[in-house]
Amino acid sequence: xxxxxxxxxxxxxxxxxxxxxxxxxxxxxxxxxxxxxxxxxxxxxxxxxxxxxxxxxxxxxxxxxxxxxxxxxxxxxxxxxxxxxxxxxxxxxxxxxxxxxxxxxxxxxxxxxxxxxxxxxxxxxxxxxxxxxxxxxxxxxxxxxxxxxxxxxxxxxxxxxxxxxxxxxxxxxxxxxxxxxxxxxxxxxxxxxxxxxxxxxxxxxxxxxxxxxxxxxxxxxxxxxxxxxxxxxxxxxxxxxxxxxxxxxxxxxxxxxxxxxxxxxxxxxxxxxxxx
Length: 276
Known about the structure:
Blueprint: H1 2-23, H2 32-38, E1 40-46, E2 48-49, E3 53-55, E4 61-62, H3 64-76, E5 79-85, H4 90-95, E6 101-102, H5 110-113, E7 116-132, E8 148-151, H6 155-164, E9 170-173, H7 176-184, E10 190-194, H8 197-204, E11 210-226, H9 230-245, H10 248-257
Parallel strand pairs: 1-5, 1-6, 8-9, 8-10
Antiparallel strand pairs: 2-3, 3-4, 7-10, 7-11
Helix pairs in contact: 7-8
């Protein structure tokens, strides 16, 4: 089963490579000067994953990634155009030029770094398993016979599939909200998510008994550009240094996550922060 999963990953990598080649003619549009001349920067964010990115009652984008993106717009002196992304569409949307930057909770992993260029980390979370209090889960093997929901292609999909194999009871959904709804409605017994999923679970089912069961890994998020886009990548790294130093990033972290800004790693194995 793991072999099948690896083959699937390889196919996706090939598709990403073709997408990159298709997008190459538009790479010039990623220069800082061209973005300033256009007066707008298109940024990919999540549309249904609070507190990272969601839509409020007035139809406005809100969230951690949204606030950081607005600061990017202020620094560049341009308008920010937000593009809501499904999990599986994040990298294709960047490579095909639908967005200039991808900030939709982009976890920094070596496989992804082969298709996109990451900046330094600007946020972090943990990839976890959530389920009802009545389900005793101390190891992933305790969940083997449970129906487990995951967003298709997300970090938690890979983590759980790597540990259990591509077993039939792993149910894949198109996005975070449908995965959360599957747990609330009883379609699945547990879900792979991140440490902010509980916010959405409490909103969808007030008074629920869902809790964090397992932690699979620490995930750092970076801002993604196309491979080889050295100018924009360097600008973003300087920008992240600036908003860390002046306290604006810490304020966003406290606002949306309710905790102090973490100490970001100086390196993530297999994921370069600058164009090589």
